[in-house]
Write a structure and sequence with these properties.
Elements lengths: L9 H40 L3 H13 L6 E7 L6 E7 L14 H4 L1 H8 L3 E4 H9 L12 E9 L2 E10 L8 H70 L4 H15 L5 E7 L4 E8 L9 E2 L4 H8 L3 E4 H9 L15 E11 L2 E11 L7 H71 L9 H17 L4 E10 L1 H8 L1 H17 L6 E6 L2 E9 L2 H15 L3 E3 L2 E3 L2 E8 L7 H17 L5 E3 L23 E11 L5 E12 L3 E4 H4 L6 H18 L5 E5 L7 H13 L6 E6 H5 L3 H12 L3 E7 L6 H4 L6 E4 L1 H7 L3 H16 L3 E4 L8 H7 L3 E14 L6
Parallel strand pairs: 17-18, 20-22, 22-23, 23-24, 24-25, 25-26, 26-27
Antiparallel strand pairs: 1-2, 1-5, 3-4, 4-5, 6-7, 6-11, 7-8, 9-10, 10-11, 12-14, 12-17, 13-14, 15-16, 19-20, 19-27, 20-21
Helix pairs in contact: 1-2, 1-6, 6-7, 6-10, 7-10, 12-13, 17-18, 18-20
């Protein structure tokens, strides 16, 4: 059974009292620890949430007030730059904030400096503080407190300041627990202050950055606004500039200017005035005004318009300035003003041009509907010069039109006076035109029959061939006509009757073709017909049949009748044709076949009718061996010397259709390669034998002669020459590019025999430098087109420099050729070319090639 307290012994009671006392001490300790922990948590929260020190210190004071008497509280921190103690926060019941700041050394001399220097907590009462002052430890400054507590603020091992709390109540002191709490708060205060400072600095930087971005954004918006205004002004200038280029009436120009002004400012009331300097007069060609319709011409006076013209500047006039100008006598009012329509804002700008001020443009507002500002002045000043130029341009054009009208009247009068003389002159012009037309007709038509001649026919045939190459569906045909027994008519009836016969034949042939077809006389008794817009070969055959039928009618003269006829060769369009010569050649071949197989008939061309046909007679006039041949020589001259270095010999044949033509063109008519090789070798022998000169002879050769079956003849001839050092055989670039290895081997044999080798037509299709290195050529003849392009296109100059670099290694002569090449002497020398081909001159007489002895 439990005992009561009264039953306990004195020893037990004493033991119980000690235990209770210990428990109370522990409870007080735990309570103090709890307060301390709670204070530190609150301190950490304040340091984490409060952005500025000015708000942080009051929060610390409120936190301490729950545990420590702190109605009088201040914090002093050392300035790291000056080393002085400076007040960071101060609250006192007696002293104001200015009281402790008597001198710069205030805190160093007082009790606060004492705690800072001693680096230890100090607690003074009134008596102990007085005693310490008497001992010279510090000075008492300001109102003396009953209780004073100062704690140093540490940052790591350095004291950076002092936190102070004081009480003016003698009964309200500080216990040991409160002092310890104060010390702990001070211990963590430096860290908290540093955190708040960093946050404060960060927020300051954020504010500064935000402010900078705001300013930048504002500047950007301002720039955008300025650019928009600039674009609007530019658009306005474009609209005004368009007026200058438009052919419109001057009244329309005024109207468009008004619309443009409306787009940039208030312009419901606008007028344009022009100033006549000679008469000192103002006219108003355009005016729109809601209150006035009287804008007639008037003499120069003292109005707002005259002020703009005399000052040559924009004028902004409101009611106040208007009264001032009138008071100063600068402006004089004419007549009474309508009070219901008062001009409250007036804006005028001079129209300036290179000739001076020609007038002004004015916008005005009534009854305070709008007040013009400086921006309106800038805008109207900005566009007024452009408007002035546009108006000046149109006014000048108007004056010019009036001048033209006056001039036209004067010209009309002169025209009437000169009409009779012009009538006579017109008759002379018509007569001359007829003569010119007749000359043109005679140049392109046969004088006997009046038919187109060979030149006109070949031109039309070339155009037809070009059109066919672009549009293959448009077929055409050529009929080559040779009259039968024409020689008998000339022999029996005479040449005069022969000419009459040809005239009748021309008329009959015209009746056999359509209006758009072309008939021409090549010469003698040969005619050609060009049939176009054909759909089938049968149409050409029908024309040939009609011609044969009409030519079977006898020709009678002086009682003598002779039966004639016509042999016709026909070529029909095909894609293989690339030149008109081929068409004439095939039609000629078909005609000869028709004549040989009975005359009075027609024949279409086919490959078996070529010039190499074995059925043909061996001595036909179009056979290459039968052509009359001659040579033409061209001197190869250095620009700096008069004497030629060499001569280029070209062979020409007299073709019955093509006339005098180079054998380089005629070789296409060879029946086969054997004939061509035979002709080429004979030309080489004939040309070199005819050239009696001590300088080098350049002769065109064919790569066919490099074939084994033809090379023996060429090599044998070269071996017999005693002056082979004066001969250079030219091979074209196109031929050498496709030569076989065996042909190049035979070419090298010629070089080994002491013969000079040259390259002709270099650069015609391409410019292969590797071709120049195959042999040590004596010369390289540039293609005429390549020579011309050197002077026109810089890219060809690079090609030429490559050619010159390769040829200089072998001392090879580079020769330019082409029409009028001498005219470009300085340019060619600038590019490094010093040799050219001069004009041609004939050597040797014409004779058939087969008649030339080998």
């Amino acid at each position: 059974m439990a005992r009561s307290v009264d039953e306990w012994s004195p020893q037990e009671l004493n033991k119980l009292q000690k235990k209770n006392k210990r428990l109370k001490a522990l409870l007080q300790k735990y309570k103090q620890q709890h307060h301390l922990q709670h204070a530190l948590i609150l301190l950490s929260e304040q340091a984490s949430t409060i952005p500025e020190l000015c708000s942080f210190y009051p929060a610390i004071q409120r936190l301490l007030a729950d545990y420590v008497p702190s109605k009088n509280f201040y914090v002093v921190l050392r300035n790291p730059d000056t080393g002085l103690l400076e007040l960071s926060y101060f609250v006192d019941q007696k002293d104001g904030i200015q009281t402790p700041l008597v001198t710069d050394q205030h805190f160093e001399q007082g009790v606060t400096g004492y705690v800072f220097r001693s680096r230890a907590t100090a607690y003074f009462t009134r008596e102990t503080m007085t005693a310490a002052q008497q001992q010279g430890k510090f000075k008492i400054l300001g109102a003396q407190a009953e209780h004073w507590l100062g704690v140093p603020i540490y940052q790591d091992t350095d004291v950076i300041g002092v936190m102070v709390s004081q009480s003016y109540d003698a009964k309200q002191g500080y216990s040991q627990e409160q002092i310890e709490l104060f010390e702990v708060i001070a211990l963590y205060l430096a860290t908290a202050i540093e955190r708040v400072k960093k946050r404060e600095l960060l927020e300051s930087q954020v504010k500064q950055r935000t402010q900078a971005l705001t300013l930048s954004n504002q500047a950007l918006n301002d720039e955008i606004s300025q650019r928009k205004k600039a674009l609007e002004r530019q658009q306005t200038l474009f609209q005004i500039s368009e007026l200058a280029s438009q052919s419109i009436n001057i009244d329309d120009v005024y109207y468009h200017v008004h619309q443009i002004m409306k787009s940039i400012t208030y312009a419901e009331n606008l007028y344009i005035a022009l100033y006549d300097k000679d008469n000192n007069w103002l006219t108003f060609p355009y005016a729109v005004d809601e209150c006035s319709e009287d804008f007639g011409p008037r003499p120069f006076a003292k109005g707002f318009s005259e002020l703009v013209l005399t000052s040559k500047q924009c004028q902004l006039i409101d009611r106040a300035r208007s009264e001032q100008l009138i008071a100063e006598g600068i402006i004089e009012r004419q007549g009474k003003l309508d009070p219901s329509c008062r001009c409250t804002s007036w804006l005028g700008a001079p129209l300036k041009t290179a000739q001076g001020v020609i007038g002004l443009i004015v916008c005005q507002a009534y009854n305070n509907k709008y007040d013009f500002v400086q921006e309106d002045v800038e805008l109207i000043a900005y566009v007024s010069n452009q408007i002035a130029n546009v108006l000046q341009n149109h006014l000048s054009q108007q004056a010019l039109r009036q001048s033209h009208q006056e001039l036209e009247l004067r010209v009309a009068e002169k025209t009437r006076e000169l009409r009779q003389a012009n009538l006579h002159l017109q008759l002379q012009i018509d007569e001359r035109r007829k003569i010119e037309q007749q000359l043109y007709h005679d140049a392109h038509h046969d004088s006997l029959t009046g038919l187109p001649n060979r030149s006109l026919f070949l031109s039309q045939l070339e155009r037809t061939l070009g059109q066919y190459q672009r549009f293959p569906e448009k077929d055409f045909a050529v009929l080559f006509i040779d009259l039968d027994k024409f020689k008998d008519i000339n022999d029996k009836l005479g040449h005069q009757c022969g000419d009459q016969f040809l005239i009748e034949v021309a008329d009959k042939l015209k009746q056999c073709i359509r209006d758009h077809d072309l008939i021409a006389r090549l010469g003698g008794d040969e005619f050609v017909i060009l049939l176009t817009q054909l759909n089938e070969r049968q149409q050409a055959e029908d024309v040939a049949k009609r011609i044969i039928a009409v030519m079977q009618q006898p020709f009678c003269n002086q009682g003598i009748c002779i039966q004639s006829g016509a042999s016709i060769g026909i070529t029909y369009s095909k894609r293989d044709y690339s030149h008109t010569d081929e068409i004439i050649r095939d039609a000629d071949a078909a005609m000869y076949y028709a004549k040989q197989t009975g005359k009075g008939r027609f024949e279409f061309y086919h490959p078996l009718l070529g010039y190499g046909n074995d059925q043909q007679e061996p001595h036909q006039r179009h056979h290459l061996m039968d052509l009359h041949t001659h040579f033409r020589a061209s001197d190869i001259v250095n620009f700096d010397q008069q004497q030629p270095h060499a001569q280029l010999l070209d062979a020409y044949g007299e073709h019955p259709v093509l006339g005098s033509t180079s054998f380089e063109q005629l070789k296409r008519f060879a029946s086969d390669n054997y004939e061509l090789a035979k002709v080429k070798l004979k030309l080489l022998k004939y040309g070199f034998n005819q050239h009696q000169s001590d300088i080098m002879s350049l002769l065109n050769c064919s790569s066919l002669l490099l074939d084994d079956k033809h090379f023996e003849g060429l090599s044998h001839w070269v071996g017999q020459l005693t002056n082979k050092d004066k001969l250079c055989l030219l091979f074209s670039e196109a031929e050498l590019r496709f030569c076989s290895a065996n042909q190049m081997k035979n070419l090298d044999k010629l070089y080994q025999q002491g013969l000079h080798i040259g390259l002709n037509e270099f650069g015609k299709d391409r410019c292969e430098l590797s071709l120049l290195t195959q042999l040590p050529y004596f010369c390289v003849l540039l293609n005429a087109t390549f020579s011309r392009r050197i002077l026109q296109d810089p890219r060809y100059d690079h090609m030429l420099q490559g050619v010159l670099a390769v040829t200089q290694l072998n001392d090879c002569m580079v020769i330019a050729k082409g029409p009028c090449i001498l005219n470009y002497r300085s340019l060619l020398e600038h590019h490094g070319v010093h040799h050219f081909i001069g004009q041609q001159h004939a050597i040797a007489e014409q004779q058939p090639l087969h008649a030339i002895p080998s």
